[in-house]
């Protein structure tokens, strides 16, 4: 029996049903952003049609409805990632904002000269630059965990690198280039054994697998709505209460204050002290709808189905001569993100040729320049699958790759 009824699920995504360059669209750029199901579009529409008002302020009916829906979305997020309480769920613009806030606020309060911040060579720029800047401000030391040949974190090196000097370990749960799943629970144990905190970039994990922040025992977890069927401009910063309470807000203004005196002010309690100004109310509510949608399918099933797609695609890619795949060779170790290069063909040309066949993939450095340098390449092409992609689409992708290779090698299709 099929793991998912993908044909039925695809009907929920009107955007997938279109023709691009005379070919049916095959959307394989899900690591950049995912498409939105009708249920999420409907919720956005309904909110602006019926409930739109500012939150936490008004006593009128619409304001109460908007506030209730906004806070209900927070509870959905809490349950989805198994946070202990909604006080630990802060709405942000996305992963980038969440990680920046940790670096700025936690970093400001707790990082001292000579402290070490440990990241890895596979981090997205959003989990590199905030730490670089913090290290510069505080004269702290930034360290990179090296990778094994297949693109796993070198855990032996990590064990040696994480010491009593370490203050922060910040690692992606899933790489947006290599498609590996990193052992963040193990890293959290290592970090905690040395009184360091564990920060997890969950941009590529939360959309694809069941996440339990308490089981992982991470101290902060960041992710984006738009990579999990939600809208852009909304994301989440999860943090343990004991840290969030000791942290100063990053932004100040309306919504986040308790009392404002002329020369001093006090903040609301968690999570609102971090949410200055009018938040992305519609975005948060629609993220809640995206979570409902994903939970109806089931995160275990989504993960299982994506693994089955990878098990189908990866060997076929591995069989193409002149094609290098970055990341694990074993499909079981590889998520739906597959970065690759054709010998002698620039990845931008590969992506352009695939687009001519209706297949949308990405090419470039994928906001991971330290990794691209580490791999010693200029750029890569990247296909990234989601639960609504089919085997037939995988076949189209493989066929388009063969045609591309043929074209560049022999000048004919
Ligand atoms: N981290 C990783 C691993 C990502 O893949 C991304 C998005 N490409 C980000 C962080 C940043 O997410 P956003 O642009 O939504 O803030």
TrEMBL record:
<keyword id="KW-0808">Transferase</keyword>
<dbReference type="InterPro" id="IPR016454">
    <property type="entry name" value="Cysteine_dSase"/>
</dbReference>
<keyword id="KW-0663">Pyridoxal phosphate</keyword>
<dbReference type="GO" id="GO:0031071">
    <property type="term" value="F:cysteine desulfurase activity"/>
</dbReference>
<comment type="function">
    <text>Catalyzes the removal of elemental sulfur and selenium atoms from L-cysteine, L-cystine, L-selenocysteine, and L-selenocystine to produce L-alanine.</text>
</comment>
<dbReference type="InterPro" id="IPR015422">
    <property type="entry name" value="PyrdxlP-dep_Trfase_small"/>
</dbReference>
<comment type="similarity">
    <text>Belongs to the class-V pyridoxal-phosphate-dependent aminotransferase family. Csd subfamily.</text>
</comment>
<protein>
    <recommendedName>
        <fullName>Cysteine desulfurase</fullName>
        <ecNumber>2.8.1.7</ecNumber>
    </recommendedName>
</protein>
<dbReference type="GO" id="GO:0030170">
    <property type="term" value="F:pyridoxal phosphate binding"/>
</dbReference>
<feature type="domain" description="Aminotransferase class V">
    <location>
        <begin position="26"/>
        <end position="397"/>
    </location>
</feature>
<dbReference type="InterPro" id="IPR010970">
    <property type="entry name" value="Cys_dSase_SufS"/>
</dbReference>
<dbReference type="InterPro" id="IPR015424">
    <property type="entry name" value="PyrdxlP-dep_Trfase"/>
</dbReference>
<dbReference type="InterPro" id="IPR020578">
    <property type="entry name" value="Aminotrans_V_PyrdxlP_BS"/>
</dbReference>
<dbReference type="Pfam" id="PF00266">
    <property type="entry name" value="Aminotran_5"/>
</dbReference>
<dbReference type="GO" id="GO:0006534">
    <property type="term" value="P:cysteine metabolic process"/>
</dbReference>
<dbReference type="InterPro" id="IPR015421">
    <property type="entry name" value="PyrdxlP-dep_Trfase_major"/>
</dbReference>
<dbReference type="InterPro" id="IPR000192">
    <property type="entry name" value="Aminotrans_V_dom"/>
</dbReference>
